[in-house]
C-alpha cells in the first residue's frame, strides 16, 4: 500500500487526513508501519534514521526489549483500569526521588491534561484568576494555553483558535520568553491578580530556544515577590538531559511541575506535581477536582517504570555528545543561513540570518527552506519532524555511526541539494563541456 493511497482513505475519515495538524505536509504525509531502535520504516519498506522519535517520547529507543517485556507481561496478566496498583506507587517514588521539588503528584493521560490541572490548582491555591504564559510557549491544546500575544506587548492574550471565548483569553497574559522587561511590566500592571507563571524552561515548540542567563531565576524571584506560583512545563525536558528534571540543572525550584513523554515510555501519560501544601488541595484531600479513568493506567505505569529503570544507569552525556557533533558540523553553513539551536541533546535547524533566541527572531526563519531541507533529508533516509518549530532529539538508541552518516547526508543536502547557485554553476560547467 502506497502513502498516497492511504492518505486518500484517511482524508475521507479525518479532517485534513490526519489526527494532529503537525503530521500533515505537502503533498501528503509518509505513512509508517514499524520502528526499531532509532529507525522507522514506511509502508513501502524504506528505512529512516529518526530524529523526531515520536516528538521526543521514545528517548529509550523503539522496540526497547526492557519496555516490551513489561507490556507483554501485562497482556498475559491483566490488571484492570481504574483501581490503585503498587506499580503506580513505585513509579511515583522514582519520580519523587529524582525531582525533589515534586513532593506530591497526580498522573494524567497527557501533557495537555497535566497543564490544565496545574493551572486550575494554581488559581484555586492563590485565589487569583490570571495566568501568565510565554508567547508561542506550548502547553497542550486546552483553552487556557491556546492563547498568543495581542497586538501590544502588554495586552491580554488573544485566542489562538476559533472556539475559545474571549472571556477565557482575557484571563491569560502573554509575555516574551527571555525578555525580563516584558514580564516585569505585566507584573507591575497585574501582579496582584496573577496566580501563576507557566513556561517551558527550554522552549520546544518554537524550535529549541534555551533560556538566556538569569531569565528563569528572574521568573522565580518575581513570582515570589508578588505571591504568584511558578510552573515549569517539563513535558519535553523531564528525564531528557539528566535522570530528573532540567530545573535541577539550573538550580531554580518551581512550585509546580508538569511532565509527560519520557515518563510513559511510549504510552499516553502526563503528570503534575509540586509542593505538598499546594497538591493537598486536590480532591479528595482538598476541593480542587481532578480525575481520569485512564490516569495511572497499568500499561502506562508499567511502561514508565521500565523506561525509568532502563535510563537510571545510562550515560546521558553520550546523547549530548552526539547532538553536539551535529551542531558543530552544521554550524559551518552559517553563510547559507543555517542556525543550529541546541540544548543538551535536543536541537532545531533554522534557516535564519541571525541568532534565534526569542519569538521575534524565530519568526524570521525561512520555513520554505526548512521544508526543502526536510524533504531532501527524507529522500536520503533522515527523518525530522515536518514542522520548522518542532525539536529534534538524539536518544539512547542512536549510535555514533548512524549520526555520522546522518551528518554526512545533511551536509550533502546543504552543499548540493539546496545550494541552488552552486548547482546552476555546475550545470553551466557541465553544459559547456
Automatic annotation (TrEMBL):
One GO MF term: glutamate-1-semialdehyde 2,1-aminomutase activity
EC primary class: isomerase
Primary site of residence: cytoplasm
EC number(s) per entry: 5.4.3.8
PROSITE patterns: AA_TRANSFER_CLASS_3
Cofactors that this protein relies on: pyridoxal 5'-phosphate
CDD domains per the UniProt record, alphabetical: OAT_like (cd00610)
Tagged with keyword Cytoplasm: yes
Family matches, as Gene3D superfamilies: Aspartate Aminotransferase, domain 1, Type I PLP-dependent aspartate aminotransferase-like (Major domain)
Matches recorded under HAMAP family: HemL_aminotrans_3
Family: Belongs to the class-III pyridoxal-phosphate-dependent aminotransferase family. HemL subfamily.
Record's protein name: Glutamate-1-semialdehyde 2,1-aminomutase
Amino acid at each position: 500500500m502506497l502513502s498516497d493511497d492511504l492518505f486518500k482513505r484517511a482524508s475521507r475519515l479525518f479532517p485534513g487526513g490526519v489526527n494532529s495538524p503537525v503530521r500533515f505536509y505537502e503533498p501528503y504525509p509518509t505513512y509508517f508501519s514499524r520502528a526499531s531502535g532509532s529507525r522507522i520504516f514506511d509502508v513501502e519498506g524504506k528505512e529512516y534514521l529518526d530524529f523526531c522519535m515520536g516528538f521526543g517520547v521514545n528517548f529509550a529507543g523503539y522496540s526497547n526489549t526492557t519496555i516490551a517485556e513489561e507490556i507483554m507481561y501485562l497482556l498475559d496478566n491483566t490488571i484492570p483500569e481504574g483501581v490503585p496498583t503498587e506499580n503506580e506507587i513505585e513509579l511515583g517514588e522514582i519520580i519523587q526521588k529524582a525531582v525533589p521539588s515534586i513532593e506530591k503528584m497526580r498522573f494524567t493521560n497527557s501533557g495537555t491534561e497535566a497543564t490544565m490541572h496545574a493551572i486550575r490548582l494554581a488559581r484555586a491555591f492563590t485565589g487569583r484568576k490570571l495566568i501568565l504564559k510565554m508567547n508561542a510557549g506550548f502547553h497542550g491544546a486546552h483553552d487556557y494555553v491556546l492563547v498568543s500575544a495581542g497586538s501590544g506587548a502588554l495586552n491580554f492574550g488573544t485566542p489562538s483558535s476559533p472556539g475559545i471565548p474571549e472571556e477565557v483569553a482575557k484571563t491569560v497574559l502573554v509575555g516574551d520568553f527571555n525578555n525580563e522587561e516584558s514580564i516585569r511590566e505585566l507584573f507591575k500592571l497585574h501582579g496582584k491578580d496573577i496566580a501563576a507563571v507557566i513556561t517551558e524552561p527550554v522552549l520546544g515548540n518554537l524550535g529549541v530556544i534555551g533560556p538566556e542567563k538569569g531569565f528563569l531565576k528572574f521568573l522565580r524571584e518575581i513570582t515570589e515577590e508578588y505571591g504568584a506560583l511558578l510552573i515549569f512545563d517539563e513535558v519535553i525536558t523531564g528525564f531528557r538531559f539528566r535522570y530528573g528534571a532540567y530545573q535541577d540543572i539550573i538550580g531554580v525550584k518551581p512550585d509546580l511541575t508538569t511532565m509527560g513523554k519520557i515518563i510513559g515510555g511510549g504510552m499516553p501519560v502526563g503528570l503534575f506535581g509540586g509542593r505538598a501544601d499546594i497538591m493537598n488541595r486536590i480532591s479528595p484531600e482538598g476541593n480542587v477536582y481532578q480525575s481520569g479513568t485512564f490516569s495511572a493506567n497499568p500499561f502506562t505505569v508499567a511502561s514508565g517504570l521500565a523506561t525509568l529503570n532502563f535510563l537510571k544507569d545510562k550515560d546521558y552525556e553520550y546523547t549530548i555528545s552526539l547532538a553536539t557533533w551535529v551542531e558543530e558540523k552544521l554550524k559551518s553553513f552559517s553563510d547559507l543561513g543555517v542556525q543550529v539551536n541546541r540544548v543538551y541533546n535536543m536541537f532545531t535547524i533554522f534557516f535564519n540570518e541571525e541568532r534565534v533566541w526569542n519569538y521575534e527572531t524565530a519568526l524570521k526563519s525561512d520555513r520554505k527552506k526548512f521544508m526543502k531541507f526536510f524533504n531532501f533529508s527524507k529522500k536520503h533516509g533522515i527523518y525530522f519532524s515536518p514542522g520548522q518549530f518542532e525539536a529534534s532529539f538524539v536518544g539512547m538508541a542512536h549510535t555514533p555511526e548512524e549520526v555520522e552518516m546522518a551528518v554526512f547526508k545533511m551536509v550533502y543536502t546543504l552543499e548540493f541539494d539546496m545550494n541552488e547557485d552552486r548547482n546552476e554553476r555546475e550545470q553551466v560547467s557541465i553544459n559547456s563541456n
